[in-house]
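Changelog-adjacent note: as of this version, every example in the card shows the full chain rather than a window. The one below runs 211 residues end to end.
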Amino acid sequence: MIDFFKESAQEYDAWFDQNELVYQSELLAIKAFLPPKGRGLEIGVGTGRFAAPLGIEVGVEPAKAMAEIAKKRGVKVFEAYAKELPFVHGSFDFVLMVTVLCFLEDPFHALMEAQRVLKLQGNLIIGMIDPDTILGRSYEKKKAVNKFYRLARFHPVGLILECLNKLGFGNIETCQTIFQELHSITEMEPMRVNHGEGGFVVISAQNVRNP
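Full-length structure tokens:
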């Protein structure tokens, strides 16, 4: 899977320009939960499309071609994996993961690692595709013909919330955006609290468990 992202970095990055309204709608939803200050990390930083505009200075990305683009956007990138982060315990005030869990073999372990590098009371922010929505079902249908979608396993939001509860996270909140298929979007999509309708869901969870 990493080889695929190495080979398709430019094509992946171009998607955000081709779907500018979707991209900006997702950014706004993430900003709703992003702490106003503090040291942040994005796991699976990709080409830096989220970290750079959100002011997140540190990222982790195993695909070198993706990491190189993120570095050009001003992100300090460590070429490492979500399952083994190269940071000591409690290094960050918040951690961001955007459409990352769907590409991992063991999402629960990745969440454990994210929690490990979070400070106590720090926030984990997850952006993900909800498979039980118009957008999610559209992505599932396109798996056979789309090089990006075919690699993904879109987890139910409830499953990720269950994982966060098992890990002892607290103050869990969700918001959502993207309420229609991408080809139908002609303006910025609204952001609403909770989840269940919007295809792009943002989860915020606080690390309240003592290490």
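Structural remarks: The mean pLDDT is 93.
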